[in-house]
Design brief:
Rossmann fold, about 30% helix, Dihydrodipicolinate Reductase, domain 2, 3 domains, 27 strands
């Protein structure tokens, strides 16, 4: 795990909450912020800011003491709602009114959001779902009846046709009106916005916290099929930038420059890793070289993102993680299918409890056809059949089951495609310590497809059925042309089967824009945790390694390292 972004905000907390649930949520927030590198000062004068979270009237003594400190002050959560006499009004420039009931609050950038506006969006809606970019926080909104002219409005929320500030700053005082409910405090979105607002506050008041240079400048080591995806993300995610692309193929370098004008390119991988203008290296080389280049990057003091799989052997991943920890940099794997729409829907159904206790999951990817003749199908370069699609699907399965893995058993078949060295058909069964089990099958010999998902729980089941989609167009002479997509190119249809025999078709949520890269930026710049970590991808690698050992020994159960 990296030591975080170098962001070192230091806060002094004044918490006085009669609502025990809200107090517990604020305590958890403090723990989360400490995990993000935010320190706590024992005294107010030693802090970048004093953060006040109260649901009781302040009293004139407290207001006077904070006003005389000469330190920025944050009035958070219900603090202003609990000020019926308006003791804070002269400091915030806000005249407040009643509080709404808790609801789904759509938070939008205010007129003075500045750089916060570009960091706001964390999800995507279907076409026409809402107007304007926003994020969601389940919370109450304190209505603001008057805003003085010298107040900087950072974030807003609408109640009816009126727009109310939910984050505003007047001089050294930040009014943070979110966090009046436990759910509002616990919201990851609200936590992210609070950190952005805190940095804006201390920077605007001349007390900037230490922070890394922005944007975080990346080098892509290899510009293959995934290259355009990374390039778009580094262009579009605020806080990240693409500095350099390295590839031995001049045509690929030309393709990179075409989509990223002004981009530097090179064929010298060693120079790219050592480049002083690079902060982060994306290792997108064949898997048997992942560990080598990741180690070189972290030893050069660079953060590193490795394409899946992490490596071929667990000891290689351990060496990368140990070196990254020693250097204080991030090492993580690009597990982009953690955000596949069908997986998001499956995970939501499992974690909501709608299926009861889930004890058995089967996942399948494949079809009948010749595998590619690239390194993906070469056992020495790729690691074998379990390391390609397995790196994606096993990551999803392990994310569903947090229990320790007891053992792994696996089998493979080599029966038809003899011009490639990977297995034609592979199956791995993961047994967990709590008795649950998960199976993944990948096949290039499946003339009939199994469901993408088959999930059993004590209260129901979920089936994900492949669908065949066609892109219809006209050819040059005007007659019909159809491009039939591979099943894996379309999200499956998900049906939830209840114990009473009823069947519910589940919606698949839209994937958020560049979710991995947005989390990457938030981690490196704000210290926020990532969904994918080096440790979780090391766990995936251990299962793939055990599956390969089991298959080589006739399916004998193997305990992952």
């Amino acid at each position: 795990m990296s030591r975080g972004p170098g962001v070192r905000l230091c806060l002094h907390w004044l918490v006085d909450l009669s609502d025990a649930h809200l107090a517990d949520a604020v305590a958890d927030l403090r723990l989360g912020l400490r995990g993000a590198g935010v320190e706590e000062a024992p005294g107010a004068r030693d802090a970048h800011a004093v953060l006040v979270w109260r649901d009781t009237p302040p009293g004139p003594a407290l207001v006077d003491r904070l006003a005389r400190l000469g330190v920025p002050v944050v009035l958070a959560g219900p603090t202003l709602a609990a000020d019926p006499d308006g003791a804070w009004t002269g400091h915030t420039g806000l005249v407040t009114g009643p509080v709404t009931p808790a609801h789904d609050v759509r938070v939008r950038a205010g007129r003075d959001a500045g750089g916060m506006a570009a960091r706001l969006v964390d999800h995507r809606h279907g076409t026409g779902a809402h107007l304007g970019e926003h994020v969601h926080v389940h919370d109450r909104v304190l209505r603001v009846e008057q805003v003085d002219d010298d107040v900087a409005v950072l974030l807003t929320a609408a109640v009816g046709l009126a727009v109310h500030p939910v984050a505003s700053r007047r001089g050294p005082v930040l009014a943070w009106l979110l966090g009046g409910t436990p759910t509002g405090v616990a919201s990851p979105t609200a936590r992210r916005l609070l950190l952005l607002a805190l940095h804006e506050l201390v920077a605007a008041t001349g007390r900037p916290a230490s922070a890394p240079r922005t944007p975080v400048r990346a080098a892509l080591l290899g510009y293959g099929a995934i290259g355009h995806e990374h390039a778009a993300a580094f262009r579009e995610v605020t806080g990240l930038g693409l500095e350099l692309v390295c590839d031995r193929n001049p045509e690929r370098l030309a393709a990179a420059r075409e989509v990223s004008p002004g981009l530097r390119t090179t064929t010298d991988a060693a120079a790219a890793v050592e480049d002083p203008d690079v902060d982060l290296v994306v290792v997108s080389t064949p898997p048997d070289t992942h560990a080598e280049w990741a180690l070189r990057a972290v030893r050069a003091g660079k953060h590193v993102v490795v394409e899946k799989p992490f490596a071929i052997r667990t000891e290689e991943a351990d060496a990368v993680l140990a070196a990254a920890d020693e250097a204080g940099v991030l090492a993580v794997v690009y597990q982009n299918r953690r955000w596949d729409p069908d997986y998001l829907a499956v995970a939501r159904a499992v974690r909501s409890g709608r299926l009861g206790e889930v004890f058995h999951v089967e996942a399948f990817v494949g079809g009948f056809g010749h595998p590619c003749n690239l390194w993906h199908s070469d056992v020495d370069a790729s690691g074998g059949a379990f390391y390609d699609w397995g790196a994606h699907v096993i990551d999803q399965l392990l994310d569903l089951f947090p229990a320790p893995v007891a053992h792994v058993s696996a089998t493979t078949h080599k029966r038809r495609w003899f011009d490639v060295t990977n297995a034609d058909h592979s199956r791995v069964l993961v047994h967990f310590a709590d008795g649950a089990e998960a199976e993944f099958t990948h096949s290039d010999l499946a003339a009939a497809l199994k469901p993408r998902w088959y999930v059993l729980g004590t209260a129901g089941a979920l089936v994900g059925s492949w669908r065949v989609e066609r892109v219809v167009s006209r050819n040059a002479v005007g007659t019909l042309e159809e491009d039939v997509l591979a099943p894996a190119d379309s999200p499956p249809v998900l049906d939830l089967h209840d114990a009473d025999g009823s069947v519910t078709r589940l919606a698949t949520p839209s994937a958020p824009p560049h979710p991995f890269h947005r989390e990457l930026a938030d981690h490196l710049l704000l210290g926020l945790p990532m969904s994918v970590t080096g440790a979780t991808s090391r766990r995936v690698l251990a299962v793939m390694e055990a599956a390969s050992a089991s298959a080589a020994d006739g399916g004998r159960p193997v305990v992952p390292r």
